[in-house]
Design a protein that fits this description.
Rossmann fold; 7-stranded parallel sheet; 12 helices
């Protein structure tokens, strides 16, 4: 036998005690207010305009896809076929700036001669002054790479950097010096909040994800030049070497600029002697000491590739 529902409703016999606080009737003011609420509601936004939605954790894949596609569309629009990556340290600045840093460190030490931290800063500043030559070399290298390769509709060997200061600034500046385009793949870091001012504006991109930024570095690379640098440069070096070692990226010349610096930082021969890398892996990279030598290595590599094809 079917039970008769109670007067309170059909849901388990429970009476609805909370009713909407909305009077019935044709109230124009209430209708207008509700329409305003509808139009301003987050739910009514187009999904791609809903920034709060895009920040949700479950939207990570969408954000990553946007970081994949946005630069790619710009590169295609600018007919950028290949790039030359320049990696290097943020602390390596041009000589006048390095001299100012050293002068400031010495002045502070003179005021507190027993301060070990200040003495250490003077030592570091002296070494950074010696390394400032690499700023000039990175700038000259980018000039050489850029000046003869952006004349046609198809752009080859476009300089790309991480968009920050130091060696990255120098490379973007070298292209800027000769009126050529260059790319900056920037990412906000605690000590680096803005891109350098020499990047081509329509080719400067900000990334949230390191992985997508690295992908765009490698995708069109025709050469990789690593100037002296720190953790970030080492990370980029070993990722590139690993991708080449495992045949996960196209063959490219990988050039360590400044043998004296790199031989102190990493003993590759010791790695091969220990058996953790093969002797053949030592041929994945080479050294260069001048901008002309580094550029010539890239030219010779691609001339040989074309001859073999």
């Amino acid at each position: 036998m079917i039970e008769k529902p109670s007067q309170g409703g059909v849901h388990g016999g429970k009476q609805c005690e909370i009713l909407p606080d909305t009077p019935l009737g044709n109230d124009v003011a209430l209708m207008a207010a509700n329409m305003d609420a509808i139009l301003s509601s987050q739910s009514y936004m187009l999904a791609h305009d809903d920034h709060k939605l895009l920040e949700e954790e479950r939207m990570r894949g969408v954000r990553m896809l946007l970081e994949l596609e946005k630069p790619e569309m710009a590169f295609q629009a600018d007919k950028i076929h290949s790039t030359v990556i320049v990696f290097g340290g943020t602390q390596i600045v041009e000589r006048p700036a390095a001299e100012r840093r050293l002068s400031d460190a010495r002045r502070k030490l003179a005021a507190s001669p027993s301060d070990r931290a200040l003495r250490r800063e003077v030592e570091r500043s002296e070494r950074l002054l010696a390394l400032s030559k690499y700023y000039d070399d990175a700038r000259e290298f980018a000039r050489l790479v850029s000046i003869d390769n952006q004349c046609d509709d198809r752009r080859d060997f476009v300089v790309v950097t991480g968009g920050g200061p130091g060696v990255m600034e120098a490379a973007n500046r070298g292209a800027f010096d000769v009126g050529c385009k260059s790319i900056g793949l920037n990412i906000k870091l605690p000590a680096e909040q803005q891109p350098n001012p020499f990047i081509t504006p329509e080719l400067c991109f900000q990334f949230r994800y390191f992985a997508l930024r690295k992908f765009h570095f490698i995708l069109r690379a025709a050469g990789v030049v690593l100037f002296p640098g720190g953790f970030g440069t080492l990370d980029e070096m070993f990722e590139t070497l690993t991708l080449r070692q495992t045949h996960r990226m196209q063959p490219v010349p990988i050039i360590l600029y400044g043998r004296e610096y790199w031989s102190k930082i990493i003993d590759f021969q010791a790695m091969a002697d220990a058996g953790v890398i093969a002797d053949d892996h030592l041929r994945l990279f080479s050294y260069a000491e001048t901008p002309q030598e580094a550029w010539q290595e890239i030219v010779d590599f691609h001339d040989q590739q074309h001859a073999e094809c």
